[in-house]
Design brief:
639 residues; alpha/beta; 7-stranded mixed barrel; 6-stranded mixed β-sheet; binds iron/sulfur cluster
Length: 639
């Protein structure tokens, strides 16, 4: 039987396990990336594993999330990460150099290699045929130390593209269309390969927009073939030698095939508060817009920015709209400046922000109260913008600019003439904002610089055979990590201070949760389907660990979060009978019986008074050992 692209890369990197769907496999990791909001914790974990130099082919530490330095905390963390990178053999991408995924695609990604990153949008690099996955910081720390990365062998989905995008319709609309078809949980347990004749019409930045947002489907990752379009992109980045051709075998088998005709797509929007709540621009044209934000790792390429500039040239945005533009990297910004496009953007009334995540993670630019904000980003979860009642719509750059010009949601097809965007034959190469690490010899004298914001890792304990705990919180379906551990300018600076962060745990749903959990000492959380969707932040597991959460019982889990719970020593358990969810009330005492035997058998009994609720788990031997040890860190250190 032939192989898919992902299966070929997996086969080349398989350390252990069988490539059978549902089986645990261990992969050799070629490259890692971290960003600063997850990086501080990841490097603290790496240091505590105690390895002298990273053992990957390439590891890069980016500073792109916590760039608002409204106190010493972020600056201290940047300095810490910079010094760790220098000492342990990691490249350091300075603040201002750009968003990790955009820069990695431009400067470091290699087709056919494996990459894990402590950020859920790491699959962006699938746009050039990398097997790139988001992971918890601790998994990245282990991979930097030369350890394998464990995943469940995914199913293979294929999306066959035919036709060609029509004027004013773009790659973002392809992402929104697949979200409409599959929903935010439709990709769980699968790798999505994009193929068909239609991909020949898509440039690398467009492909990367699509693989980026595959994360919102819950997919393990998304991947395009590496073809002549990939080759031309890498050559234009002065990296032609990184090119290898990659495609699936003609007789490769897929678990599901989805057809999309690009020619039939329209401009779409994801309405509040979920990326799969899709409507067309035509339908929503009566809605008044307060704010428009362009950028993020989804839509900040040179191509996107040139489109924005060409639409804004010689025009003025509506007086009632506030527009921000954040180019994805220094390369993009610098090329916009050189060709004059930046002046077109500024001239129209946009506020140009630095090359960073910015408003996407609530780092400034929050909308006004109940404000309607159109964003070219990938997530519109409630409260994520920093304004609790903000109404965020996810859109393409085309819809964003058209709406900024009129003040209402606007179908860009009503704008008339459409200018084709030409990509340069050569990008401007200047890697001076990527600092090289010290040599192994010099590294011995490099001091790691720690600030007072860095607090110890939460205490972990070996698992006991019986857990008695209070059901402190019952939540519904599709709970995101932004609910569990919110981000934003006020909280993000404390990512290395778990005790402080814990005050905000679940604050979006229930402000008194943290207090109740501390009082209860031992807690169980009950959730619906797709619990923990969204980001890779391990803080959504470390903070509950600190608050005494012993288990999360849900109808189903998102991949990275389930792995993070196990890494933190918290049991993710699913209902055998989903109806049992309705039988549980908040604030009741529950017990999990005979855990050691139950984990082996894959079935655990939870007692609610005299009633018995069967729960299932299919932990591997390794996961059972991690849980028994009290988490991956203790397990790795052999404690
Ligand atoms: C996000 O988009 O939610 C983030 C911020 O990039 C997260 C990582 C984090 O929480 O630091 C992600 O996607 O993994
Ligand atoms: Fe940054 Fe937003 Fe991308 Fe997350 S989704 S990496 S916050 S730009």
């Amino acid at each position: 039987m032939g192989l898919t692209i992902a299966q070929k890369i997996i086969k080349n990197h398989l350390v252990s396990g069988e490539m059978k769907v549902g089986e645990e496999i261990a992969l050799r990791i070629d490259q890692t990336l971290t960003q600063d909001a997850t990086g501080t914790m990841a490097y603290l974990e790496f240091e505590s594993i105690g390895i002298e130099r990273v053992r990957t082919k390439l590891s890069v530490a980016y500073i792109d999330h916590n760039t608002l330095q409204s106190g010493f905390e972020n600056a201290d963390d940047h300095r810490y990460i910079q010094s760790v990178a220098k000492k342990y053999g990691i490249r350091f991408s300075r603040p201002g150099n750009g968003i990790c995924h955009q820069v990695h695609l431009e400067r470091f990604g290699v087709p056919g290699m494996t990459l894990i990153g402590s950020d859920s949008h790491t699959p962006t690099a699938g746009g050039i045929g990398m097997l790139a996955m988001g992971a918890g910081g601790l998994d990245v720390a282990v991979a930097m130390g030369g350890g394998e990365y464990y995943i469940t062998m995914p199913k293979m989905y294929k999306v066959n593209l035919t036709g060609k995008l029509q004027p004013w319709v773009s790659a973002k609309d392809v992402s929104l269309e697949i979200l409409r078809i599959l929903s935010v949980k439709g990709g769980v347990g699968a790798i999505i390969e994009w193929g068909g004749e239609g991909i020949k019409t898509l440039s690398v930045p467009e492909r990367a927009t699509i693989t980026n947002m595959g994360t919102e489907l819950g997919a393990t990752t998304s991947i395009f073939p590496s073809d002549e379009i990939t080759k031309a992109f890498l050559e234009a980045q002065g990296r032609g030698d990184a090119f290898v051709a990659l495609e699936s075998d003609p007789d490769a088998e897929y678990d599901r095939i989805i057809d999309i005709n690009l020619s039939e797509l329209k401009p779409l929007l994801a309405c509040p508060h979920s990326p799969d709540n899709i409507k067309s621009a035509e339908e929503l044209s009566h809605i008044k817009v307060d704010q428009v934000c362009i950028g993020s790792c989804t839509n900040s390429s040179l191509r996107d920015m040139l489109r924005v500039a060409s639409m804004l040239k010689g025009k003025k945005i509506d007086d009632s709209v506030s527009l921000s533009v954040s180019p994805g990297s220094k390369q993009v910004l610098s090329m916009l400046a050189d060709c004059g496009a930046l002046s077109d953007i500024l001239g129209a009334g946009a506020r140009v922000l630095e090359c960073a995540c910015g408003p996407c993670i609530g780092m400034g630019f929050s909308p006004n109260s109940a404000g309607v904000s159109l964003r070219t980003f990938n997530r519109n979860f409630e409260g994520r913008s920093g304004t609790k009642d903000g109404q965020v719509y996810l859109v393409s750059p085309e819809v964003a600019v058209a709406s900024a010009l009129t003040g209402y949601i606007t179908d860009p097809r009503t704008l008339g003439a459409y200018e084709e965007i030409e990509m340069p034959d050569a990008f401007k190469i200047d890697d001076s904002a990527v600092l090289m690490p010290a040599s192994a010899e010099e590294a011995k004298n490099v001091e790691v610089l720690r600030g007072p914001n860095i607090k110890p890792f939460p205490e972990t304990r070996k698992l006991e055979n019986r857990i008695e705990a209070n059901l402190t919180l019952k939540v519904g379906d599709n709970i995101t990590t932004d609910h569990i551990m919110p981000a934003g300018a006020k909280i993000l600076p404390y990512r290395s201070n778990i005790p402080y962060l814990s005050r905000f745990c679940f604050a979006v749903c229930d402000e008194s949760f943290a207090e109740r959990a501390l009082e209860a000492k031992n807690s169980i959380i009950v959730g619906g389907t797709n619990y923990g969707q969204g980001s890779s932040r391990e803080h959504a597991a470390l903070v509950p660990l600190y608050l005494g959460v012993k288990a999360v019982v849900a109808k189903s889990f998102a991949r990275i979060h389930a792995a993070n719970l196990i890494n933190a020593g918290i049991l993710p358990l699913t209902f055998e009978n989903p109806e049992d969810y309705d039988k549980l009330d908040q604030n009741t005492m529950l017990s999990l019986e005979n855990l050691f035997e139950g984990m082996e058998k894959g079935k655990i009994i939870m007692k609610n008074g005299n009633a018995e609720i069967p729960l299932v788990c299919n932990y591997t031997k390794r996961q059972i050992d991690i849980l028994k040890a009290g988490g991956l860190l203790a397990y790795t250190k052999g404690e």
